[in-house]
Amino acid sequence: MIRVIIADDHPVVRQGLKQVVNQDPQINVVGEAGDGVELLELTRAVPFDVLVLDITMPGRSGLEVLKELRRDRPSLPVLVLSMHPEDQYAVRVLKAGAAGYLTKESAPDQLISAIKKAYEGGKYISPGTAERLALYIEADGPEEPHQLLSDREFQVMRALAQGKSVTQLAEELGLSAKTVSTYRTRVLEKMGMSSNSELIRYAVRHGLIS
Question: Quick one: average pLDDT of 144-151?
């Protein structure tokens, strides 16, 4: 039996994922978490084999939690599930040590296949993501500005490029407006820009927002 923990901040989504996963007699959901803090506590208290992790959660992001879990348990299989298209996050999460990346539009059988593959020690990567990963590995030129951002900075950059205000983003991430403003300043400095308008044009040009 493959024991799975599901982490997503939306209870309805968690319930749907649980129903999908539990349809397979070889898989059993043994725990659920709605944010990063709750998830870390759960992973220390409940034995499990595979984690299905939403990349966007309030407070600590899924990527931050992924990196902490990988430090403590390097061999832990973590599947990242996201509403964001593959071209926006897949390579980043695989670099962080995830065992695979799926969008929330993925068919149920894809999720089940991914869980089984991760449990066996493999990586679940779509053909499109495999191509992007190969191009990233082969690239020998300087990194694009957005690739220099930390995971949280990248998350903030995308949100600002989508037109969200500092106040909106602070509420969404469970952070103070001052903290988000600090992230915004770092993003602009690292990317050599001075306004959100420049971020928007850059993000559209590089396919970083839908």
Answer: 82
Q: Which residues contact 50 (CB under 8 A, 6 or more apart)?
A: 2, 3, 4, 5, 77, 78, 79, 99, 115, 118, 119
Tracing tokens 């929330």 back to the chain, one arrives at 104
pLDDT per residue over 90-132, tens digit each? 777 887 888 988 887 777 888 999 999 999 999 888 766 676 6
Element (H, E) at 6: strand 2-7
Q: Which residues neighbour 126 within 8 Å (Cβ) at sequence distance 6 or greater? A: 86, 90, 101
Backbone angles phi, psi at 76, to 5 degrees: -65, 125
Q: Rounded distance, CA 181 to CA 185, Å?
A: 6
Residue 161 has phi, psi (to 5 degrees) of -70, -20
151: pLDDT strictly greater than 70: yes
Q: Please write the tens of the pLDDT for every residue from 2-41.
A: 999 999 988 998 999 999 999 999 999 999 999 888 999 9
The structure tokens listed for 54 are 């939403």
Contact indicator for 87, 132 with CB cutoff of 8 Å: yes
What does the alpha-carbon distance between residue 120 and residue 88 come to, in Å, rounded to a whole number?
27
What DSSP assignment string belongs to 81-136?
Answer: EESS-HHHHHHHHHHTT-SEEEETTS-HHHHHHHHHHHHTT--B--HHHHHHHHHH
Tokens of 137: 């590995």
